[in-house]
Each structure stands twice: as C-alpha cells, then as structure tokens.
Design a protein that fits this description.
Helices cover 81% and strands 0% of the residues. By secondary structure, it is mainly α.
C-alpha cells in the first residue's frame, strides 16, 4: 500500500542518490555517461527508498534512521551492479570477452571499479547523511500521516 512514509523515503533517497552522483560526476566531462548513471541510479534509489526505508518507518526515529542508512547501502550496491552489468554488455557487444563465463566474472571487477570512487569522504558522507535524513523524514511522515 502506498503511504506518505514510502513516498517521502523514495523522494529523499532519490535526492540522496542524485546528490552523490552529482558530486561523483562533477569533474568528469562525459555527459552521456552522466545521463546514463542518473537514469540508473535514481530509479534504483526510488525503489530502495520505497521498499526498504518507507516500509520500516513508524517504529521510532532510531529504527527509521537505521533503515535509511541500510537503504543507502542497498542503493549503492544496486546501482553499481546495474551499471556493471550494462558495461559488461557493452564490452560483450564489442567482442571484448572470449567466453560467456569471462563476461559474468568481469561484472565483479567492473562493479569494484565503479564503487572505488564512492570511498571519497564527500561522497561517502553524502550517502550516510542522506540515508539518515531519509529515515528521519520517512518517520516524520509516518507519524504525521498515519
């Protein structure tokens, strides 16, 4: 069932993902890669915010903040894996791999390569604070609109 908490969680998690991606892609010139990354990250963030954080709102601020933090981690994992699979298919069409198993195994290496810049302090702090704020606003919405 749609609730205000789920809506707020989805919205704020999407803003968190967009802010982190904006910080990540601020110094890169490739506009096409940025558009694709936004097109992947924001829907993953909305889905995770709705399913993970919004569904757990209403149990107190501490549990909602934890759910927001957990949703932030899930968002990163989901977006990185989707981007890695997309890159794997791009490389597979360019005949970069000799066997299908090589392509599947390369997904892990590609995902690690995509996740490496997320360890920067500003991006990691944005993800953590954004997840906590998402949890707070989801809890506020759950208490306000039952």
């Amino acid at each position: 069932m749609p609730t205000a908490a789920k809506l707020f969680a989805a919205l704020f998690m999407a803003l968190t993902g967009a802010a982190a991606l904006w910080l990540l892609r601020a110094d890169e010139p490739g506009l096409r890669a940025t558009i694709i990354a936004f097109a992947v990250t924001v829907p993953v963030a909305v889905f995770v915010g709705w399913r993970e954080c919004g569904a757990r709102a209403g149990g107190g601020y501490a549990s909602s903040m934890l759910a927001g933090f957990r949703a932030s981690i899930y968002m990163v994992i989901g977006a990185v894996l989707v981007l890695a699979v997309m890159q794997m298919f791009k490389l597979a069409w360019a005949r970069h791999y000799d066997a299908p198993t090589e392509a599947v195994v390369d997904i892990v290496a590609l995902a690690i390569g995509f996740a490496r810049p997320l360890a920067e302090t500003s991006i990691a702090a944005t993800l953590v604070v954004g997840g906590l704020v998402t949890g707070i606003f989801a809890e506020m919405a759950a208490r306000r609109w039952r």
